[in-house]
Specification:
With about 475 residues, this protein is of the alpha/beta class. It contains 14 helices and 19 strands. It has helices at about 5, 10-30, 45-60, 85-100, 120-125, 145-150, 200, 210-220, 250-255, 275-285, 300-305, 315-325, 345-360, 385-410, and strands at about 35-40, 65, 75-80, 105-110, 135, 155-160, 180-185, 185, 205, 225-230, 265, 290-295, 330-340, 360-365, 415-420, 430-435, 440-445, 450-460, 465-470. The strands form five sheets. It has a six-stranded parallel β-sheet with strand order 2-1-3-4-5-6, with helices on both faces. The protein has a five-stranded mixed beta barrel with strand order 15-16-17-19-18. α9 (about 250-255) packs parallel to α10 and α10 (about 275-285) packs parallel to α12. The protein binds 5'-deoxyadenosine (5AD) and iron/sulfur cluster (SF4). 5'-deoxyadenosine binds near residues 369 and 371.
Length: about 475
């Protein structure tokens, strides 16, 4: 892709700011602060996209509310990864008909991955007539202009053209935490795993310029942010499309030079592109967390080939060995799909055995969900759901045992944690994370929020650790 074609020019972004000003004047006429509700489904990328939508809404003068009956505008940021996610969205959108009846001026907007699919957009066009504006992930930077059209035009607005995608720098953003932040380093995906809808809805891979990423991270560190998560569908292919190519490890090493007390995390890494250079860079960089989310998806080489993952079971296991050699204290997590079309019980059990062999700290597990338009959705799939559930439960049982065991090993240890918020639980009032990203429910004073502290781990279960703050840690 030609870079000049994908970077949105400054004059275009200036035009969007003009629409923001016009919308501020329009909604300013209500005689009170207008209210917006932003509801987000799906992954961290979507959470971060919603923060940008909220940034634009804030600049239009909106306050935020959780009550649809109080809102002047509702934005639902949708997910398409599995059928369940879509069902939830359609349920939520259906409910909004009541809010629209009560306030016909209410603007209802749908954005994100689900609406980028033609069939879903068609269903909204036909059966969800109370929705005013629909736009896909590639159109996010044009939200002000689209909203203006929806508010002032005669009809509903749909912006879901099949675009390869762009990069828009400098969009406003509402950060919900002063302690943690997301930073997108690239957008889109070129991998076309055969089960996955993402490449069809989020466009082709495109990387932000290193200078823009460095400036953003520097700004966050200067603002006191303590944990920054770099986001991309496959961060390991970062930089391939840049004019002066730079790979993800080089970017990490550059970011690591920024002085300050903060941690860098990143997700997601595709195993086919994660190698020695990445592991060595992680081990060397003091700001990079000892945490790797390395989705394996399946433990069967045949199923991996059908999934178009680009590695075998043995190659994956070898990468894990190398990663652990470079970082013996590495916290390792993964995504798994059970019940891919044609998967046999023996193959599903190969996945369970891989999970036992690796000994992940935690897993994100899914039962395969056919996504219309993907190659896997056309494959015969004769195994009943109930049988897949049995395999899935065996996987969960194995992982729960492993997680509990790994967590037990922390008991009695002193670990450095970042206190990232209050929990609302009287017994364990603070929530904190270890360097490797494990959750520690903590006893301690609310004044510790936003700080690194040393904690003694006193207990553990399958999902989390429990402990008490020992002291403030100024190291
Ligand atoms: N069905 C089930 N799980 C899926 N994932 C992606 N597509 C599907 C699907 N069609 C899972 C993968 C991916 C995670 C984000 O969601 O495990 O890593
Ligand atoms: Fe989907 Fe595969 Fe791309 Fe991940 S790497 S977003 S699973 S196609």
């Amino acid at each position: 892709m030609d870079r000049t074609q994908i970077v949105i020019p400054a004059v275009e972004l200036q035009r969007q700011r003009e629409f923001i000003r016009q919308l501020a004047a329009r909604f300013g006429g209500l005689g009170r602060a207008p209210a917006a509700l932003v509801d987000t489904y799906g992954c961290q990328q979507n959470v971060h996209d919603s923060q940008r939508i909220m940034g634009m809404l804030r600049d239009m003068g909106f306050d935020f509310t959780g009550d649809p009956y109080e809102a002047d505008i509702i934005v639902i940021n949708t997910c398409a990864i599995r059928e369940n996610a879509e069902k939830k969205v359609f349920g939520a959108v259906g409910q909004l008909v009541h809010a629209k009846e009560r306030n016909p001026e209410l603007m209802i907007c749908l954005c994100g991955c689900m609406v980028q699919q033609e069939e879903a957009a068609e269903r909204i066009r036909r059966s969800y007539r109370h929705v005013d504006l629909v736009f896909g992930p590639q159109a996010l930077w044009r939200f002000p202009e689209l909203l203006w059209q929806a508010c002032t035009g005669r009809g509903r607005v749909f912006s879901i053209e099949d675009e390869p995608g762009s990069i828009a720098e400098g969009l406003p953003v509402v950060r919900e935490s002063a302690v943690k932040a997301w930073v997108s380093i690239m957008y889109g995906c070129n991998n076309f795993c055969t089960y996955c809808i993402v490449p069809y809805v989020r466009g082709r891979e495109r990387s932000r310029e290193p200078a823009d990423i460095l400036a953003e991270v520097r700004g966050l560190v200067a603002d006191g942010v303590k944990e920054i998560t770099l986001l991309g569908q496959n961060v390991n292919s970062y930089g391939r499309d840049l004019d002066a190519p730079m790979d993800f490890s080089d970017l990490l090493a550059e970011l690591d030079k920024i002085p300050g007390d903060y941690l860098l995390r990143f997700m997601t890494s595709h195993p086919k592109d994660a190698g020695e250079k990445l592991f060595d860079t992680m081990a060397r960089c003091s700001h990079v967390a000892r945490q790797l989310h390395l989705p394996v998806q399946s433990g069967s080489t045949r199923v991996l080939r059908e999934m178009n993952r680009g590695y075998t079971r043995e190659q994956y296991l070898e990468k894990v060995r190398r990663a652990r050699r470079a970082m013996p204290d590495l916290v390792l997590t993964s995504d798994i799909i059970i019940g891919f079309p044609g998967e046999t019980e023996a193959e599903a059990m190969e996945t369970v055995s891989l999970v036992e062999e690796v000994g992940y700290d935690a897993l994100f597990t899914f039962i395969y969900s056919p996504r219309p338009g993907t190659p896997a959705a056309k494959l015969p799939d004769s195994v009943p759901r109930a049988e897949k559930q049995v395999w899935f439960d065996r996987l969960l049982e194995a992982q729960n045992r492993i997680s509990a065991q790994r967590h037990r090993a922390y008991v009695g240890e002193a670990v450095r944690v970042l206190v990232d918020g209050e929990s609302g639980d009287a017994q364990w009032p603070l929530a904190s994370r270890t360097n490797g990203g494990r959750l520690v429910h903590l006893r301690g004073d609310a004044s510790l929020v936003g700080q690194y502290v040393l904690a003694r781990v006193t207990d553990a279960n399958t999902w989390a650790l429990f402990g008490e703050a020992l002291q403030e840690n100024h190291t």
